[in-house]
Amino acid sequence: MFNFYQNLQDREKKLVLISLIFIITLVIFIFIKNTYESYSSSSANLKKAKSDYEYVFDKIYTFQKSLNRNNLDEKSINLILINNNFGDSITDIKFNEIDSLIHINFSSLNIVDAVSFSEKLITDHSNQVISIKYKNLDSKVITELKFD
Description:
single chain, alpha+beta, 58% helix
């Protein structure tokens, strides 16, 4: 092989050398291209898997949250009152069950606390809210909630 190369003319030697460099460059380019394509497809698969995981996680979290909801009763209302530090601002809580409807009335010092407490009652329990009424009366907010 070496004899064959030695017998070539100077111009042919340069042509073989250029061809060899071109082939090596082509092989390196193909290797890099395949590696990049593999990386790109792996990245796309990772994004899809992550998206699928987050979708399933959100659905399970929502389902789990709905399973943890309780029915409304005086004990759960008092727990919300204590756990969320509404003790100073929410007063005069009245709990009544009339014709399979639950009526909750309470007073608060301001509308923000009344809305926050109402929201906690609605989101933490499985009962559906039917109506919400807020009345401003003598520097207090009177709230009436009806649940199914």
